[in-house]
Amino acid sequence: MTQNYLIGGSVCAVLAVLAFWGMWRSWNRRQRQGDALVAALTPVTGAAQQKFERVLYVVTHPAAQPLVRVSLPGLIYRGYATVTVHSDGLKVAIPGENETAIGAIHRITTCQSSLAKTVEKDGLVEVHWRAGEQALVSVFRLPSAAQQKEFINLVTSNIEGTGQC
């Protein structure tokens, strides 16, 4: 009887070690992919137009793969951020993370759900942008509908003024 517990316990321990190894490996791969995109980020150097406080940063994912999270430095963890709209992009500052520039914005849309959040109809803002050849989508939730509308209008006017933000 003791031998059965020993075999069962050993099998469970091996499965747990394999599960943690798989998670560690996936996390490291995602980190390397995000680090490779850093060199392709478009710098945001234009004039700051408006700052939005307590914006919930939800997730960044490849445009064609909404269920795959991209781990860019500064955009790894979900959290409340200060998002500053510049004439040529956005700067996102999440407490405890480095400020990240989102340039080369080509579209902004609204949605109800993403990989990590579901809310009321059109409650999330999707910012479609490029890092080199990679098309990405960053998802945000603004504190109020009025701020969301103001954010969308401001970013849209920047996109329309230059063809891209």
From TrEMBL:
Keywords carried by this UniProt record: Membrane, Transmembrane, Transmembrane helix
Highest rank taxon of the organism: Bacteria
Residue span(s) of domain PH: 45-153
Transmembrane segments: 6-24
Keyword Membrane: yes
Name assigned to this protein: PH domain-containing protein
